[in-house]
Amino acid sequence: MYDQSRELYDRALSVTPGGVNSPVRAAYPYPNFVGRGEGAHLIDVDGNRYVDYVMAYGPLLLGHTLPEEVEGAIQSQLSDGPMYGVPTEVEVELAEFIARHVPSVEQVRFVNSGTEATTSAVRLARGYTGRDDIVVMQGNYHGAQESTLVEGDDEERGPSSEGIPSAFAEHTIPVPFNDVEAVERVFEERGEDIAAVMLEPMLGNRGIVHPVDGYLERLRELTEEHGALLVFDEVMTGFRIGGLSCAQGAFGVEPDLTTFGKVIGGGFPVGAIGGSAAVMESFTPVGDVFQAGTFSGHPVTMTAGLETLRYAAENDVYDYLQGLGDELRSGLQDIVEDQAPEYTVVGRDSMFKVIFTREAPDTFEGHCEAGCRQQEACPRFDRCPKNGADVAAANTERWERIFYHEMRDRGIMLTTNQFEPQFLSYAHTEEDVENTLEAYKEAL
Ligand SMILES: *Cc1c(COP(=O)(O)O)cnc(C)c1O
Predict the structure, then answer these.
(1) Which of 96, 114, 126, 308 could form a disulfide with 266 if both were Cys (CB 3.0 to 4.6 A apart)?
(2) What's the pTM value of the predicted model, to 2 decimals?
(3) In the chain, which residues have pLDDT < 70?
């Protein structure tokens, strides 16, 4: 059934470490190699067809088949030459689009990946404030960069990867998400040294975990009081949660800086940093915080991003995704209540996941019906995963060893692990959702 994939993986293992170009793609015992995408579906090299909920780990808001006008604009740009290294109109237009729709953003600097965006944002925050320390959330992911690959807590911590000098961990303080006291304590102890608090406003890379009521607001107050910047890493949530105003619009909290990536490249490599002109103009060539890139503002990427976002603005993309997402999440909730009451359905808008938590609630009355929103009034509030550690304490082995394969063999492609969320795209249909719920029913 997967012979070609196995053969390709065998070849890949000889020429690429672990056979993959990003470790999250490694599946047990080997990943499916893709032949092509079509709408919401993937067809692997052996000809098997799947409803795809990986969606390239987030970027593909419109699915695998681009609308004609989007594809046409990309091809037309490509025929004018791939790139120039001098400014183009399309990068101004995409920056204008983002600034118009995202409340906290006046200026944008484009880069080529989410990692580059968060690296530059950390440097900018440090340069702007003249301070060295940053506070991050345990289990957050800000890309493969030295300053945020740190694990531990405010008292004891170290790099979470080999090859990173421990000096980086001195200046990066991880705290648990949704824990107001923990971050208050850090500010009390070293408030004068903190350049920024950086976080995913909704944990996307460990979860999904919704912020509890008042948490983001409290971070906004604390950073302001202490002269630190609040940085929302919206590489995943940007233009996916909260529609065109992003997660910050959905939660009603304005950060000083925002990092973007994924969706804004329309399927091409991208990242961006956005914020007020006052902060952003600390970047070179105006200010003294160095930031540069040969491929930054790449015209093909900018065209793909701009046309994708325009398409979303002019069509019912976000309404459709929210409706379909609610249908899927509430369907999952019904199945879980019947078959696996200890599991938690999480997510909102076009993101979802079933976390294999271990404790069943006494009742489902008053429970969130289409994804955990961390509501205090919910009888289950104390048991819902609140942070990265809670998610990691779930039965992740069952997901990786059994459940993922059960779903794949039924034609549903999920991420190989419990930590990455699943994404819906504009190409997913009601029929896809019905088939997906059937598969969950059998596999859970
Ligand atoms: C994906 C992601 C990144 C890293 O982006 P890359 O383009 O993979 O470098 C950073 N932060 C968040 C929140 C992400 O989801």
Answers:
(1) 308
(2) 0.97
(3) none
